[in-house]
Amino acid sequence: MKLCLAILFTAILLGMLAVTTYASLDCNILNVSRELLTDPWFHATLADAYFGFITFYVWVLYKEACWFRRVLWFVLIMMLGNMAMAVYVLLQLRKVNSGSDLSHVLLRQPAC
Q: Is residue 95 predicted with pLDDT exceeding 70?
């Protein structure tokens, strides 16, 4: 199961890096048209993404006992979205010994 999750989140990270690089090379995000910025589906998609980031962050907030890490991961998740979320899960998976159950990935860490 650990290997499957590692493959999934590595694919998510690489996919997001690829699509972000492609989009960045095509057009600067600060130069998007006014038509896009006023499109209701753009607003809905952006809200959906950030609500998802906040949902994931609630788990990080529970899991991380150290306030510094909580703040750091909040900033990273809000700025980098799914890329930061994939990195967070991959870092958590690295802490799990092979043969151990995945409860260490889901449950709270000791204080920093």
A: yes
